[in-house]
Amino acid sequence: MRTALVIGTGLIGTSAALALMSRGVIVHLADHDPEQARTATALGAGTDEAPEGPVDLAIVAAPPAHVAGVLADAMRSGVARGYLDVASVKGGPRRELQALGLDLSAYLGTHPMSGREKSGPLAASADLFEGRPWVLTPTRDTDTEVLNLALELVSHCRAVPVVMDADAHDRAVALVSHMPHLVSSMVAARLEHAEEAAVRLCGQGIRDVTRIAASDPRMWIDILSANPGPVADLLADVSADLDETVQALRALQSSDEAKRREGSAGIEDVLRRGNAGQVRVPGKHGSAPRAYEVVAVLIDDQPGQLARIFADAGRAGVNIEDVRIEHATGQQAGLVQLMVEPNAVPILTAALRERGWAIRQ
Ligand SMILES: NC(=O)C1=CN([C@@H]2O[C@H](COP(=O)(O)OP(=O)(O)OC[C@H]3O[C@@H](n4cnc5c(N)ncnc54)[C@H](O)[C@@H]3O)[C@@H](O)[C@H]2O)C=CC1
Ligand SMILES: O=C(O)C(=O)Cc1ccc(O)cc1
User: Fold this and answer.
1) Residue to mutate (ligand 1; options 5, 28, 29, 32; most atoms within 8 A of CB)
2) Which ipTM value was assigned to this complex?
3) pLDDT in tens, 99-121
């Protein structure tokens, strides 16, 4: 691919443009808000001048509700050899394009499974998609050339291509993205009017559960409106679990011993099913999930502390598999949790102690 046109220069469009630019592709940027395209240009994501002739690939990264319209305009104007979109839902845009009577052989629906809770070009980065799945939904009618252009884009973004049927994709993302998003919002909504004294106690657990609730509601209304059926089915299942859990908790309040045992069994059931689901969440690089051990280190909230810990771990020959930071409430300190292979725990602990770090259990 030598040239590309990104239409919609927000988080995803600008991130893809930055990745393509870094691989030497000439990228043109367009957005219905020219300010967004100017910002993306200033970030080095390409030029906001229109291409002189057809580009190799047009990438539509507008909100889902606008995708079919933007694609239809682009395809009718013949601005590219191949067209793809990156919308979070795939069945709806394809059906809309079909209804508009367009020849879909030059179009491929795609979805990078990577993003952030922030929008706009300023949140973009060239490595946003690195190591993440990028779903492609070709049909029998898709031109091989267009599929190859999409594979080239995915490879330039260092993502991992995954081929799926559009409707199967929509059911899958309802499960792993859309329903969890709503549940996160519902948990976070409980905090809105909570007392300050309670909110101050927030720890890592609630931070993890509510992180995605910070996302732009307009974008998510678009996404959920394009996938309401599968999301409603899953939420109904969650709702059934909620009803049973409330009943079990009420039973735990009973003075009747047998009822309390029943309640306890109900709670255990939901927690155990949660364990069984959680272990299926893929690990690093999409590999099978692995159990890492945690080495917890207390650090001062000062520049250079993390760099020093990582360097000390590196000198000890220990690979840090993952890392989390828990910030202490009301103190200029944090707890860094270094996730490592179990056999590396004694080596890392000894090396860090020797260099004066405070290890916590
Ligand atoms: N935010 C995320 O984490 C992910 C989003 N997606 C999908 O990527 C697409 C873009 O999302 P973001 O980059 O997050 O949104 P964003 O809000 O950061 O950017 C969207 C851009 O599209 C522009 N736009 C809106 N209507 C337009 C139109 N008619 N013509 C041209 N440009 C138009 C907006 O001005 C904005 O610059 C959406 O379809 C979304 O479903 C896919 C994967 C992850
Ligand atoms: O923030 C996260 O962890 C996400 O999962 C973001 C995300 C949002 C929308 C998508 O279509 C894909 C990924």
Assistant:
1) 32
2) 0.97
3) 999 999 999 999 999 988 789 99
